[in-house]
Amino acid sequence: MSIAGAANPSSTLRKRYLYLIAFVSGMTTLAIELSASRLLGSVFGNSNLVWANVIGLMLLYLTAGYFLGGRLADRFPREDLLLKLIMWAAFLCGLIPLLARPIISRAAQAVFGAEAALALGSFIVILILFSVPVTLLGTVSPFVIRLAVTDIAFSGRVAGQVYAISTLGSILGAFLPVLLTIPQIGTTRTFLLFAGILYAVAFAAHLRSNARAALPYVCMPILLGLLVGTATGSPLRQPAQDANLVYEGESAYNYIQVQEDSAGYRYLYLNEGQGVHSQWHESEIFYGATWDYFLAAPYFNNAPYRADQVKSMLLIGLAAGTIPRQHTSVYSHIRIDGIELDPEIVEVGARYFDMNAEAMPQLNTHLGDGRFILNQMARDYTVIAVDAYRPPYIPWHLTTVEFFTEVKNRLSEEGVVSINVGRTDTDRRLVDALSHTLLAVFPNVHAIDVPQSFNTILVATLRPTAADNLRANLNYPVDSVNPVLYEIMAMAADNIVPLGESHILFTDDRAPVEMLVDSIVLDFLLAGRAEEFRLDDD
Q1: CATH number of the domain located at residue range(s) 5-231 in this protein
Q2: Interatomic CA distance for residues 254 and 277, integer angstroms
Q3: Is the CA virtual torsion 202, 205, 206, 212 positive or negative?
Q4: What is the pLDDT of residues 259-272, one digit of tens each?
Q5: Which residues face 460 on adjacent strands?
Q6: What mean pLDDT comes out for the span 364-381?
Q7: For the structural domain made of 285-532, what CATH number should be given?
Q8: DSSP letter assigned to residue 237
Q9: Is pTM, for the whole model, over 0.90?
Q10: C-alpha distances in angstroms, 142 versus 12, 18, 91, 137?
Q11: Domain ranges of the chain
């Protein structure tokens, strides 16, 4: 049944079909926008800067579409033209991830190799890929309004109905990709799914109104099907040299990879792959990396501080469990609560990193936002560790005075909070700002620069303490504790650095974290040292 043919017995059915087109078009538009952020996020992250570019350019393309659609509808008020525009929009939406995949793969190498110009160019090219299909989607609403209005006296009512129905579709398009389709079938198939629904609605009407004219458009899904088979066979980001891809998948929050090298070390990579988020080896636990230094945090308390006083730990940013695995090796009696936002990462940790009840019975895993879960906990902790800062998209609500006050309220009598903060070797503004913010809540803050990395561990203590306490506690070794602990304490003591000054205080009302991090990264790249930029881990 064509749109025009549906009007023969009554214009009501015709109008309903037009409204269906408006609904599906609105749903597809938002689904494509949300999927665009994930497509880019796998390499460039999900910072406010990325979101601003995605949303801003999508709105620009839609603006062009509204203008073009209104002009076309007035000049050529034909239903077959509307249907053809929709089918082309659907085809090009399905084509986006297939054309973007090789660009994304190259961009991932550029980001990992810190080739700033190539990475930026790839980012721009990918956004340009959305220009034509989203502009065509923008033509739908004004075109539908023009065709649905049969009496000028009711034009306002019709326009309101079309935009209301289109917005309802947009609401569905906003939730389905994030909550259902991307985690279940991935980004590429999400593009294809919504493009396919849009195409089917338009093609069905066109086929019944003019089968001869519609048949050539059958080649669109056939071509996409052929391209899908050739474009999605390889990993989005190639494994590092001398490493094999063990797992690749997408969750509601992250693009996830697990790689394993020839020596049996496994590594967890997220999104753009800058930084190892967890590490595992069958026979090794300590890797000389940033995670090790969290073990030194309690020993900033006044000497003698005994290992058996470390009774409990809350970790915000659990990832695949490297930090809990190390702590359970050192403190067999410790109780650990780990918070992780992404349930898929927890599953990956259980499958590939021994983060399970059999290997780590002391660990209790909690899924959700770190700050929300923190405030649900009824117990106090010896150590609260925050390993959730992943430049350039640091969760601002985990950096504020109010957050650290909530952390303070969950510490035991000699409790400490330790956080992992990124920096460069010449720009410590983020470290200094967080130190300043912590000092608004805690009496003392100490900084450990992790050697051969762009990481600093900040340790804030509930009681007044001195930096010399760490070295003083080395004089009280305990035979029953893994001796690696004292090696780590010694290295940490050797790398204590003085705090810098900062006038920035992060609060719930104002926390310009991303602006500060973007500035640090940009300054570093503009200084011509892009090839040095790495984050060893989070």
Answers
A1: 1.20.1250
A2: 12
A3: positive
A4: 999 999 999 998 86
A5: 417, 445
A6: 94
A7: 3.40.50.150
A8: S
A9: no
A10: 19, 11, 21, 10
A11: 5-231, 285-532
